[in-house]
């Protein structure tokens, strides 16, 4: 499995939380209580909680105040706000958040360690939190050889940092061209430049207004959510950051510029086929565990489906009415992920007689191992074996001009709201509340930051079609055996690393 795709890995050992706790989606948002019988519209994802819980989280007036600027941001129109986004004394910064990736083969194992050391990736009960890093070390060493093979096949490392740096520079130029002299920073979750490094540079530059922009078009608790929780902890511990006005753009899949840019790329690639109208458009999105959506209220699936609807509506305006489908890639571990799966769907399409397929990496804005190796190599080979004769792939957005310009517009539209809702954040323990209401989004599924519900309630043994399932079970069993040996013998890698005391 691709190393960068492991960011969604649901190694979970935790107790369940009430399913009433839900994440609120952004943009075109509506809220109803669980007792309501009215069905939501296509563009609305319902957030459910009990009447007691909802009264604690929101009042109707505060919710309206929260959603008003939020809807203005995700809409393509400029909101009705003051035309001057900041004063002459303000220093504006934009922080781009991304996953990160190993730049050399030697970086692969430490990158994987950082990934698995994240408690949002491997969730352990509080009693076993001391095992977080030893477990991350064990899994990263176990998986490094296979991951290195993947990175070696695409040139020996991930291009993600290079592309993200280029996007940051183009965004800076676009902002300056629109009379907003902002500085743009890159903060990676699991590799250099780390988010912490970007924050230190932001402080050194004396930034007074900060716009946080995750480079994930759709929000998920395992991508944007993880990065924002890290920011939350950093902000709480730093007096400078507490006093710095900031806001967050949690997702931007609905923006007209983004939709237009995606439609442009698809239209261009369709023209490379001998019969463009006969091509099946195949949207492949990064998957997430099903429990994240059904139990934790992750809006990712709903946002992804709406995003594709908007892209196809734009293509229909251009008289492009090709058949299309959506599937989810990069699943791993002994749990059920969002379906349909990309590999299984490719096989089914081949069996149904589809001969031309255009893959669209819909959840990625940069080329990396999941596009260059998983889609371009693994899925293409599978498609050819399944009877598909002609394969094409839409490139990731990268520095596409319409896309970058729209990101700049999103930043500019958010500036009047920077800090506008940040009153008493420290006392209320609600950082990152402005525009996008990230704190409320996180609190809606777990105000105490407890573990997500376990992706599976019963551990089922038996033969399975997925080798990854057995890999996961074998790894967890090996970990348990090693821990028992450590405790009983007093020897092993935990003692050597100083995690457990050495008995003399």
From TrEMBL:
Main location: plastid
Keyword set includes Transcription regulation: no
Documented EC number(s): 4.98.1.1
Residue spans crossing the bilayer: none
Top EC category: lyase
One of the GO biological process terms: heme biosynthetic process
Subcellular location: Plastid, Chloroplast
Annotated GO MF terms: ferrochelatase activity
Stored Gene3D superfamilies: 3.40.50.1400
Gene Ontology cellular component list: chloroplast; mitochondrion
Biological or metabolic pathway of the protein: Porphyrin-containing compound metabolism; protoheme biosynthesis; protoheme from protoporphyrin-IX: step 1/1
Keywords: Chloroplast, Heme biosynthesis, Iron, Lyase, Plastid, Porphyrin biosynthesis
Catalytic activity reported: heme b + 2 H(+) = protoporphyrin IX + Fe(2+)
Record Pfam families: Ferrochelatase
Entries under PANTHER family matching the protein: FERROCHELATASE, FERROCHELATASE, MITOCHONDRIAL
Chain's role: Catalyzes the ferrous insertion into protoporphyrin IX.
Family of the protein in this entry: Belongs to the ferrochelatase family.
Descriptive protein name: Ferrochelatase
The organism of origin for this protein: Prunus avium
Gene (name only): LOC110760402
């Amino acid at each position: 499995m691709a190393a960068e795709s492991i960011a969604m890995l649901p190694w979970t050992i935790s107790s369940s939380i009430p399913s009433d706790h839900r994440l609120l989606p952004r943009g075109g948002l509506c809220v109803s209580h669980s007792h309501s019988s009215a069905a939501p519209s296509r563009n609305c994802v319902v957030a459910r909680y009990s009447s007691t819980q909802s009264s604690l989280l929101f009042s109707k007036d505060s919710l309206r105040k929260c959603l008003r600027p939020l809807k203005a941001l995700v809409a393509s129109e400029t909101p009705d706000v003051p035309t001057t986004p900041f004063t002459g004394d303000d220093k504006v910064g934009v922080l781009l958040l991304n996953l990160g990736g190993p730049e050399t083969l030697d970086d692969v194992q430490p990158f994987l360690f950082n990934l698995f050391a994240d408690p949002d990736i491997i969730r352990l009960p509080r009693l076993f939190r001391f095992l977080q890093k030893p477990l991350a070390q064990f899994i990263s060493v176990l998986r490094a050889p296979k991951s290195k093979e993947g990175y070696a096949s695409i040139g020996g490392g991930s291009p993600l940092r290079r592309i993200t740096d280029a996007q940051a520079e183009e965004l800076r130029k676009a902002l300056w061209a629109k009379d907003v002299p902002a500085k743009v920073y890159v903060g990676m979750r699991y590799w250099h430049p780390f988010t912490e490094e970007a924050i230190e540079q932001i402080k050194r530059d004396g930034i007074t207004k900060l716009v946080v922009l995750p480079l994930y078009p759709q929000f998920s608790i395992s991508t944007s959510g993880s990065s924002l929780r890290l920011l939350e902890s950093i902000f709480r511990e730093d007096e400078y950051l507490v006093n710095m006005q900031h806001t967050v753009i949690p997702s931007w899949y609905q923006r007209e510029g983004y939709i237009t840019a995606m439609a442009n790329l698809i239209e261009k690639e369709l023209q490379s086929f001998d019969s463009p109208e006969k091509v099946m458009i195949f949207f492949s999105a990064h998957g997430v565990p099903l429990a994240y959506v059904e139990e934790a209220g992750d809006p990712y699936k709903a946002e992804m489906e709406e995003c594709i609807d908007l892209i196809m509506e734009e293509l229909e305006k251009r008289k492009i009415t090709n058949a299309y489908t959506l599937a989810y890639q990069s699943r791993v571990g002994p749990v059920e992920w969002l379906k349909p799966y990309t590999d299984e769907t490719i096989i089914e399409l081949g069996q149904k007689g589809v001969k031309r397929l255009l893959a669209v990496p819909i959840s990625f804005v940069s080329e990396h191992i999941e596009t260059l190796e998983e889609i371009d190599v693994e899925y293409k080979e599978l498609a050819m074996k399944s009877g598909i004769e002609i394969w094409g792939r839409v490139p990731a957005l990268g520095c596409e001009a319409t896309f970058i310009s729209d990101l700049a517009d999103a930043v500019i539209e958010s500036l009047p709201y920077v800090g506008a809702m940040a009153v008493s954040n420290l006392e209320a323990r609600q950082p990152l509340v402005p525009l996008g209401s990230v704190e409320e989004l996180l609190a809606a599924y777990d105000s105490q930051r407890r573990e997500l519900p376990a992706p599976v309630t019963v551990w089922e043994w038996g033969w399975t079609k997925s080798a990854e399932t057995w890999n996961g079970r074998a790894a967890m069993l090996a970990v348990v055996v090693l821990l028992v040996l450590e405790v009983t013998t007093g020897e092993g890698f935990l003692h050597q690393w100083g995690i457990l005391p050495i008995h003399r």
